[in-house]
């Protein structure tokens, strides 16, 4: 647990521009015209027709996006900005969610094998969500398996396109299942790990919401572990609902594992709960809402931080007058745990433009190498994931400007700028 000041992450380096050779000015002019129309002056019929037209136009744009991203992926265009994949580029440069970026990539990949469905998509008759129904079930493995078994994928392609144009959204899922049934009529036992999913999202107040999908065997293990804790703690007068009991048991399972010290390390340190809070807030008896910050970004009250500190190691980081942790000096060749915590609190993620990999994927990089006189201190440190740590040792460069913003340059000296490509200033 650290007693350091919470530092705001620097503003992202966003540049907004429009390359004229990619999108025509006519497209933006059309959108500007649509946005300026007074919908209150339209009849109900006109509004409905307008809605249908916009959906078709969005479908066509989604189709072109999938085609373009697929081309960029096959040509490794993301390497131009120092990234390994178009998935990373979509997430880091144009702010798509992880799920949305994956959806675009799946669409471009599967449509290469389904020309009829692709044509319907490009014509605006098929939606991105309908393409996703197919793409989520028909991956490269299924395409290869169909070819090996002599299954006519073209027939299914035509059928899926017809169903997508003429039937309900749910009907397409049934049609896709027919293909999977033909692909594996005997229903061989699947790999249980392939269907397992766990997603966690953070809410505005720092709480988390999640859902998971498990196979029967994996689900039985989870239920058995949770049930053991639920049944071991059934105090008289317990008014908790069953779902509350299960949630408390899950947290207790994690408490037990963290306390055991047997979990794998995260970048040289054991996984642990980190709370950053000013010392004054920690000792103040007031509640102090939002005074502490957890390692994954949530904020908590000073009272809750004190509660966590009752059974925790406390590390004190002395802050300088500029609000940053003081340097540790050149005598430290290896990054100490204290310095690493300070760098993580300042940078929050990989600082390479468009990346944002979490701290536990990252190394602490010396901006000026030790052998060239660089000190092992906060000012000379940057958080970089393994891939981008390698990149900056092979021509790319990261630098923190006086305003606290990280900037990234390619080997040719051009700066990597990120942001939505909409206008040219």
From TrEMBL:
Residue stretches making up the HNH nuclease domain: 338-390
Coiled-coil residue windows: none
Domain of life, per lineage: Bacteria
GO molecular function: endonuclease activity; nucleic acid binding; zinc ion binding
Family membership: Belongs to the Rv1128c/1148c/1588c/1702c/1945/3466 family.
Protein name as it appears in the record: HNH nuclease domain-containing protein
Species annotation: Modestobacter marinus
